[in-house]
Sequence to fold (115 residues):
Amino acid sequence: MVNPKTLKGIGLFQLEILHLVSIGKKESIETIEKCMDEGNLIEYLFNKYKEDFFIVFDNEIYDNEALNQYFQNYSGYIQGNESRKYGIMNETDGLLLIPALICDKIEHSAATWTN
Fold:
């Protein structure tokens, strides 16, 4: 594994999620939040949709533990705030929580970026 404890691959994971949404895959908010709570979001989605993923998330290239920890850190914070904070209105749009949380990271980090 390269650079353990980094979020390397989080952008590619987001692209995989966008692909899943584009081809009509659905997950409930409850399921996604449960996987975040349990710290197995990456494995759950990769194993369930392995044939639809372009990138392999088998913990060889990317640190799945670090990626799962990133999402697990939001556990509790997002529950009940899906529509108010992230605009996610439908119970079956749980996959959209993932890019929304990555956008949160970008928003906070962008405060120190320069053009």
